[in-house]
Design brief:
Elements lengths: L28 H9 L10 H9 L4 H9 L3 H7 L10 H14 L1 H15 L18 H19 L3 E4 L3 E5 L2 E5 L3 E4 L4 E7 L11 H22 L6 E2 L2 E7 L6 E7 L1 H14 L2 H6 L13 H9 L16 H10 L8 H6 L6 H8 L9 H21 L6
Parallel strand pairs: 5-6, 5-7
Antiparallel strand pairs: 1-4, 2-3, 4-5, 7-8
Helix pairs in contact: 2-8, 2-9, 8-9, 14-15
Length: 394
């Protein structure tokens, strides 16, 4: 029987809570990067040179995003009408391979001699070293075989030379496979990266820019080795790498020790940044893609949507450098003159602004940069007036 009298209010039925709307699943980073490079485009693998170039220009969001997404920048540059015009000549490639074979001949006897001479602290070079077989199917198999060989060599407590090992390093959620020239395992468990280059070392000194590039590349290998060493008892990765080059203008090998701690720290920070490329991607307009099947106009719009940090040094390290240089010149950006010039000009960001400040048309005269430009312009005018008037410059 109802508790309400006849004619009374009907019983109240408790309201049922409406089901919560299903939230749209968040797009994963890997899916987002696949959309950026094109759904049907396979990711372009990263190598040590590319990662080292990232570390050399950590402020370039454009390169960070494109490399993180696996976009083939050479194909992209060609589609934009600014193909990359750099690369190693066939002659240099053959010469480099011949020199590397000479250094590693006889089981790496000469290489071990150079290593002990530079890093051994007076110890005698070993007569021989174990050279494990690192062949395996595919890069994943080779990387696993390399890790096993490193652990076995460390446990054995002797000298071991790993010729072209394969290392894996996670970059933006996917593995990058790296192949150093050699890694030497010391009896005390230390692992030393060996980088063999064909540029000469004259009077025990080599080109600073080339040594710097080799140091950044070696730092990538050190980072990858540290991942393996962390799981290997008694192993330690040396932060001093051995750089082997031809002596003077001969084909005889000589070596130098390069400390890569600074380069390792910079590269580590840049790789950490690469794992957050979703922040850069999130700021892009909807539908942005770098699919090579798009028109040059669409690709140009997509590329310009990502900020770049162009510098003349990019010409030797990035496939998109010629495109970025053309844009920088068209905009009159002072970055096209070099990082050092850009740093000296402070808040002046365009060549037109610099010239106007030097001519006294723009700029705060109390600004030290503006004052220096006007002083330089006055000295130049004085010098030119002296030449025009026949008065020799002093």
């Amino acid at each position: 029987m109802s508790e309400y009298p006849a004619g009374g209010p009907p019983p109240q039925i408790p309201a049922t809570r409406a089901p919560a709307p299903q939230s749209k699943p968040a797009t994963t980073l890997r899916q987002r990067l696949a959309e950026l490079r094109g759904p049907a485009v396979a990711p372009h693998p990263l190598d040590a040179r590319a990662l080292a170039a990232l570390a050399a220009n950590p402020g370039c969001k454009r390169r960070a995003l494109l490399d993180g997404a696996g976009v083939d920048k050479a194909v992209l540059a060609t589609a934009l009408g600014s193909p990359a015009a750099f690369g190693q000549s066939q002659f240099a490639f053959v010469r480099g391979n011949a020199f590397e074979a000479k250094v590693k001949a006889d089981g790496g006897t000469e290489l071990l001699r150079l290593l002990v001479e530079r890093l051994g602290g007076g110890a005698e070079a070993p007569a021989s070293a174990v050279v494990p077989d690192l062949t395996a199917a595919g890069p994943e198999g080779r990387a696993a075989r390399t890790a096993l060989a490193l652990r076995e060599a460390t446990a054995a407590g002797g000298w071991a030379l790993l010729d072209h090992p394969m290392l894996a390093l996670e970059v933006a959620g996917s593995p990058a496979y790296l192949e150093p020239d050699a890694v030497v395992v010391h009896p005390d468990g230390t692992w030393t990266v060996v980088e063999i280059k064909s540029f000469p070392m004259i009077d025990s000194s080599a080109d600073a820019a080339k040594v710097g590039a080799a140091a950044r590349q070696s730092a990538v290998y050190v980072l990858a080795l540290e991942r393996i060493a962390a799981k290997t008892e008694g192993a330690e990765v040396a932060h001093r790498v051995l750089l082997v080059c031809p002596k003077d203008f001969s084909n005889l090998p000589t070596a130098s020790v390069v400390d890569v701690r600074k380069q390792r720290a910079v590269t580590s920070r840049q790789l950490t940044r690469l794992t957050r490329v979703e922040d850069i991607a999130a700021a892009l307009p909807e539908g942005t893609t770098f699919d090579p099947g798009c028109s040059p106009e669409e690709l140009g719009t997509a590329v310009e949507a990502v900020p770049a940090a162009y510098a003349p040094e990019c010409l030797a390290a990035c496939e998109l450098a010629f495109h970025c240089r053309a844009k920088a010149r068209a905009e009159g950006a002072v970055e096209s003159l070099g990082r050092s010039v850009r740093g000296e000009l402070g808040g002046l960001t365009t060549v037109a602004g610099v010239l106007a400040a030097a001519a006294g048309k723009e700029g705060d005269p109390d600004d030290p940069t503006v004052a220096a430009l006007r002083r330089a312009a006055a000295l130049r005018a004085e010098a030119l007036a002296g030449v025009d008037g026949g008065v020799p410059c002093r």
